[in-house]
C-alpha cells in the first residue's frame, strides 16, 4: 500500500488551542470545454427592438449599430455591433392576428358552409352581436341556393360562333356580418364588417370572407404603428442609424 505523508502545521487560536483541520480526498471536477459565443437572434412583435433598447441601450455602441425598416414586410430589424459576427439581431414583425388568420379574412382560404358554421359557433366571442352569430350559424348549416344557368352556343356556316354563359345564384346567405377581432398580433380588438363571397360550381360550394374595411384599416395602421416605433427609438437611441429598405 502506497502511503502519502503530508506534513501540516496546525494553526492555533488566540487561546493557544489547536484549530481542527479537516483533510478531504477526491478528484477535482473536470474542466468544461470552452464554448464559442452564440449569435443572438430574437423575433417578436413589432415593438421588440424598442423594448430591447429601453433596457440595454447603455450597454451598446450606437455608432456600431443600425436599424432597417421594411414597410412592405411590416418588419423592423435592430442590428447590434454590426462588425461582430456574434452580434445581436432583434426583429419586430407586425403580424396579422391569430383570429384574422383563422377566419381567413382577405386570404385564399375557402370554407364549406357547414365547416364555417361550426367555426363561427365555436368563436362566438368575436361577434359583436350574439344573435347575429346564431342566425349566421343556422343559415350556414341550412345553406340553400338556387342556380339559374343560361347557355347559348351557335356556329354558322361562315365560321361565326356564339358562345354565351351566364349564371345567377339566389341564396339565403347574408351579405355581411360584423366581427370584433384584433387586426394585428398583440393589439386590441377592432370592429370590422365581413362579406361572404360564394363560389358555386354544380354541387360544389365554397365560401370566402372578404373585408374591404379591414384591408383599408390595416394599410393605414401599419404605417402609423411603424412610424410610432421609429420615433420612440429615436428618443431612446438618437445615434443609431435608421434605414428604410
Portion in strands: 25-35%
Based on the structure, what is the oligomeric state of the protein chains? single chain
- List the secondary-structure elements in sequence, H or E: EHEEEHHHEEEEEHE
Overall morphology:
elongated
| Helix fraction bin | 25-40%
Distance between the termini: 77 Å
What does the largest sheet look like? 5 strands, mixed
Rg over alpha carbons: 34 Å
Topology diagram in text:
Layout: E1 40-45, H1 48-56, E2 66-70, E3 75-80, E4 88-93, H2 98-103, H3 113-122, H4 130-141, E5 145-155, E6 161-171, E7 176-182, E8 189-201, E9 204-210, H5 212-236, E10 241-244
Parallel strand pairs: 1-4, 2-10
Antiparallel strand pairs: 2-3, 3-4, 5-6, 7-8, 8-9
Helix pairs in contact: 1-5, 3-4
Describe the structure.
By secondary structure, this protein is of the alpha+beta class. It has five helices and ten strands; from the N terminus they run E-H-E-E-E-H-H-H-E-E-E-E-E-H-E. It has helices at residues 48-56, 98-103, 113-122, 130-141, 212-236, and strands spanning 40-45, 66-70, 75-80, 88-93, 145-155, 161-171, 176-182, 189-201, 204-210, 241-244. A five-stranded mixed β-sheet has the order 1-4-3-2-10, covered by helices on one side. The protein has a three-stranded antiparallel β-sheet with strand order 7-8-9, sandwiched between helices. A hairpin with a 5-residue loop joins strand 5 and strand 6 (161-171). Helix 1 packs parallel to helix 5. It is elongated and about 120 Å long. It starts with 39 loop residues before the first strand and ends with a strand. 16% of the residues are buried.
